[in-house]
Amino acid sequence: MAFSEFRPLDEKTLVDYVKAVPALSSKLGGNLDDLTIKEVGDGNLNFVYIVIGSSGSLVIKQALPYIRCIGESWPMTKERAYFEAVTLKEHGRWCPNNVPEVFHFDRTMSLIAMRYLEPPHIILRKGLIAGVEYPLLAEHISDYMANTLFYTSLIYRSTTEHKKAVAEFCGNVELCRLTEQVVFSDPYKVSEYNHWTSPYLDEDAEAVRNDDGLKVEIAELKSKFCERSQALIHGDLHTGSVMVTHDSTQVIDPEFAFYGPMGFDIGAFLGNLILAYFAQDGHAVGENDRKNYKEWILKTIEDTWNLFRKKFTALWDKHKDGSGEAYLPAIYNNPELQLLVQKKYFEDLLHDTVGFGSAKMIRRIVGVAHVEDLESIADPSKRATCEKRALCLAKMLLKERRKFHDISEIVSAVRNVQ
């Protein structure tokens, strides 16, 4: 252990830390006095440093005891770094091609050192804003979701193994409570943290707070989020938690991870793609009307769900006689019944996905933390038009999600918003 008690590192003390930890110094080469260090943490919570040495590189992420974007007035447990490190290792076990390798974890310092995703890797959200197509995105992200969600679920695991893992992740309660507040509570009441594109969305924000039908549905989703320990979910799988190139997709930042409903991860990702879709009109310039790009986003949404379902089903079929206790082989031992339970499983999961995705969209428009896709539209009137369309769709999907039975119907609903 490099340091005996927690303290935030800066570029100078980080060098001392690296020198004291052989697992890190060995990755960087001989002359550690000439390290190149850059702080790149543009997120809401943590410090993130890129460290480049003479013969290697890595990323060091340190959790602070408060929310970075707000300050010490909003305390936050440093223990989130522990759950992030455990999740990176567990998800990396099941999907090593799409999760960066962890080199070192220091619980006292709330510090994780991991593989540096070198250029041309960029945050997916920034690529979507720029209008870049990623031909393997749906293939890769469906791999990640199918493998991490299946192998940490009761379809694969025994109840004993599952409950032990659930109990450990109950310790990440503060991050879960933060999600409960900003996704399922604040947008539906007056909160000092809420903001929106005012005055254009003043009435829309008030309408959300006064929509009793919406509140009934969000209460059900909050209960599922709090009570359903379906799989080890990332917990914050938006397009800012994915780094991409044309042939690589890497999922990062699972500090909100816990055992929760699968649809929360799938919905977060698809919901953020829908926000990116509605933001495109605000980024269209001249002859580049972004119409083709919007169609690519819709195809990616549809492909992601369909590939996820196909891959998850294949894993289920492969392990149907294994140790998983959700569907015991002695009971579900014929092909017709297997198909029946799978059909019901995925219909329920689609409804959860649509509900949680819609909730994430609403909070990104009238809640505390918005998305760069929309915020980077300089003209507030144009931005508000994009946001109104997204908000209108999200409210409808949240309340009517059970009417949809296929992802193509969701895509049609997105396309038909005027």
Automatic annotation (TrEMBL):
Sorted keywords for this record are:
ATP-binding, Kinase, Nucleotide-binding, Transferase
Question: Span of the secretion signal?
Answer: none
| GO annotation, biological process | methionine biosynthetic process
- Which Gene Ontology molecular-function terms are recorded? ATP binding; S-methyl-5-thioribose kinase activity
List the InterPro entries: Aminoglycoside_PTrfase, Kinase-like_dom_sf, Methylthioribose_kinase
Top-level lineage group: Eukaryota
Q: Entry's Pfam families?
A: APH
EC number from the UniProt entry: 2.7.1.100
Q: Which residues form the Aminoglycoside phosphotransferase domain?
A: 172-270
Enzyme kind, highest EC tier = transferase
* Membrane spanning stretches: none
Q: Which family does it belong to?
A: Belongs to the methylthioribose kinase family.
Q: How does it assemble?
A: Homodimer.
What's the name of the protein?
Answer: S-methyl-5-thioribose kinase
Question: Which species is this UniProt entry from?
Answer: Cannabis sativa
The top of its lineage is:
Eukaryota, Viridiplantae, Streptophyta, Embryophyta, Tracheophyta
The gene for this chain is: LOC115703014
